[in-house]
Amino acid sequence: MKKAYLWAKQTTMKILLAHALTEECGNIVLQGHDCCFCQTGIGKVQAALTVEAALLDTKPELVINLGSAGALHHQIGDILLCTRFIDRDLKKVAIPGVCDELDFTAALTSAGWFVDYTLGHTVSTGDSFVTSEADLDTSVDVVDMEAFAIAAACHRHTIPFLSVKFVTDTVGKNSLEAWAEKLSHANQGLEAFMNALRIQA
Length: 201
Prior knowledge:
The chain is 29% helix and 26% strand. By secondary structure, it is an alpha/beta fold. The protein has a single domain, classed as 3-Layer(aba) Sandwich (Rossmann fold). The chain has a five-stranded mixed barrel.
């Protein structure tokens, strides 16, 4: 069932910035906006519980997830604005009536907040660290362990959601080792990108 997402056209927005690890969130200041931060921890359950509590407490108008991610078709160091989210664990079992995909592209496009950027990239979320291309739907852009859960909490509260992902590794090519080595690069890259982000509120 589709939900209507509500937003207010104003200069200052209240934005919740959610990140799994301290290393994925640097010194970020979104000029002109009221920002609060939420560290979710790793995995879907932790992310859903933490963000749900933060939504009730802060009542943001927009949620942005910052994080590192593995990819198949993108280069290490690329930053993608993701608006489509798949739960790869639920997708495998395909239970009728159980939601395994959420898409915020239309809501964010209608809001007009990110007119200078390309939206529509897809995150595949699961409770496992993907180390093989055989474990992944090759049509997705990046993989992580939290984004779908955050998307589900935002969908429940009809709050628009965007995930900003820094590609740290190529799936199937020493993904775990490369990810650990690239966290500092992700921190720097996401900090620079977010501090230059133009939100047309």
